[in-house]
Structures are given as C-alpha cells and as structure tokens.
Amino acid sequence: MLSSALLAAILVVAVAFDLKERRIPNLLIIVGLLTALFFQGLHASWGGLLFSLQGFLAGLALLFLPFLWGGIGAGDVKLLAVVGAFQGPTQVFYTFLYMALWGGLIACLLLLWHRNLLSTLRRWGNGFRLGGVSFSAAARAGEKQIFFPYALAIALGALTQAVLVWWGI
Fold this sequence. Notes:
Shape: elongated
C-alpha cells in the first residue's frame, strides 16, 4: 500500500513538471526507480528486485519505438519504466494499454480545443493512402504544434490499472 502511495506521489510530481516545464526531471526518475527497487526488494528479496527490474525494462520497451519515431519524449519513456519497476512486467503492460486509451482521448480533446481535429484526421487519411504517417507532419504542414503532457496519460493509465486491480477485475 505504501509503495502504491509513493508511486502516486511520483506520478503527481511528474505530471506537475510536465505541465509546467514540459519535461520530467531525471532526478525524479532516479528517486522513483530506487524507491521501487527498495520496496520490491524489501517485500520479496532478490525475487522482488528481479520483478522490479523486469517491470522497468518492460516499461522502457513499450515506449521505445514511439520514442524513436519522435512521437513521445524520453522522460515519458523513463516514467513508464518507473511505473513498471513498481508494478512489474505484466501490470505495466496493462497500464500501457490504459495509458494509450487515455492518451488518445486527451489527444482528441486537445485537437478539438485547438480546432485541429478535422485537419489532422484528413492529413492522417492522406498519409495512410500514401503509405505512411509521420508524427511530425503538423510542423511540415505549417500547423501549430500542440503540446501534449503525456505524463498525464501515463498517470491516468496507472491509476486505472490500480483501481481495476483493487476491484479485482
């Protein structure tokens, strides 16, 4: 229970930094990883440490390709890895799925707010017809890029996963 509260605190701080400064500090990532390793090691000794490291690597792996494609920042990748260090490899995968759903919803809301939803859908449709879609197409198309604080989607994904586990779903 304490480790869940600590993860929640880390996520709140990450969201605040991402909203205000558009970055997630490496110090927060390091503190989060060390905290997860400490609690997992305390809970289950070497097995807990291995569980935590597997979750960390799974979290990194899940967002590595989107990072390489320029669709997500390095801080977001590392933040999901910290979530994985707390949750383990299986639970971080489910968090990833919920995070993607929340991220899609937030992205649609931001596009609606900035009145870019139809032009974005049109551009994506054209990209699919031509055989490829680029995440940075908005910059080339002369549209204003919209900042998306993805730490919020990660936090909401982790919260959704925690609530569903708590409810036994």
